[in-house]
Request: fold
Amino acid sequence: MRLISLLCFLFLTSISLVVFTQETNDHLDQNEGDSVVLERRKRYEATLKFIEEMRRRREKDPQGFADSIAQIKEKQKFHTASARIEEYRQSQNLNELVEIDISGARLVEIPDWIFEAKNLEILVLDNNRISVLPDRLNELSKLRRIYWRHNDLGNANVRISRLDSIEKIDLTGNDLLKLPKVHRLKGLEELVLEDNSFKKIPTWRARRLKDLKELDLSINPLEIDKRWYGLLDHIEILKLNKCHISDLHPSIYRMIELKELQIQVNDLQTIPDGISALEKLEKLSFYKNQLAVLPNDFFDLDMLKVIDFYYNQFEKIPPEIGNLKNIEILYLSFNRLYDIPGEINQLENLEELYIHHNRLSEIPLKLGELQKLKTFHFQHNYIPEFPSQILGMKNLVDLDISDTDIKSIPSGIIDLHLKNFYWRNLEINLADPDNRQTTQVLMKLMDQGTNVVPGISIVELFDD
Reply:
């Protein structure tokens, strides 16, 4: 479709050029004008012929046409990569480079000239056929990150030398069933194994990476069953997103050093008891699952700072939420919430609260006691009137009340000094004289620099 759109653009451009030439012909020398018109007409006719040929091929063989376009794109990427690599090869400033990208060049090994880049920190090997990280990489003492994505390593004889300086390696999209011998990278702190074929977390080999802090196994067909997760008790960040996980075995809680756990876009309906064993957990995301209840010991995670429950099935939040005193950001949007407990006022460190796209008909009065709150979004709920408790939140800078049943906006909102105020799709007719006070409030907000969205017709209607 993009190619057809481009061709149509060229077609229309050619027509416009011909018309332009005809309109300006009187200002040109007659011979010169005829020459320009003739040349542009030829280009127009060639473009039209090309479009017709492409259309004919597409109608005759849609799959073949799509394959041809894909091949053309692949060739373009290869030529671009080849040109980039040639520019590197001839460069007199290799020693000044901190990043080199040799992706997409169909290479089977790392070129020798790379070892001249003594200040290199980042090496990108994506979309090649490289299966060896040679000993010579140790010559690049500042090299910290290797991106080795989409090299079809799953069927290759992968060899990784003992490299001392590497802190991160990304093996995304290599159809790996088992972990290569990355334990040779003694200083490795971050390992990305996204979009491969792992069916379980590779605890046995990964246990030897004693400096490993972050492990990303997203987009793998994982099963989290009873295994030796305690072997990875030194890992601090674990990402298991888009893995079709439907059950979470509590043995994963043996990873007691975890500070961040992401299990996003999966099929979880329950969280097993025992999660309180993750005493150091600060960030937790179950974004886009099917959760409706929380285990009792969840509220013992008193080190939590960020909770993300976007897109789940919660109807209410237990009052024990007040136990999580260190929470700074709370995402509860796109659920089925009809109630927020008053105990939320105990989250004295809360700075951002997102409860939009739920079924709420009221905001707890005690919410006004959250004096550190800076962002509050409760749009797409059934709130009938502007919550007066908001006017006491003196640190609030970002407020969204859109798509609620609020009919008027109090003048006290001016004293909040908001940076952003969203009020889309409220039933407030600014042309109605009865709403003149609301209009003046909105105008004052804009005058003091607040980004008022929408507010596009306020000045036009009431500029006196």
User: Anything to note?
Assistant: The two ends are 51 Å apart (CA to CA). DSSP finds six helices and 18 strands in the chain. The first strand starts at residue 99 and ends at 101.
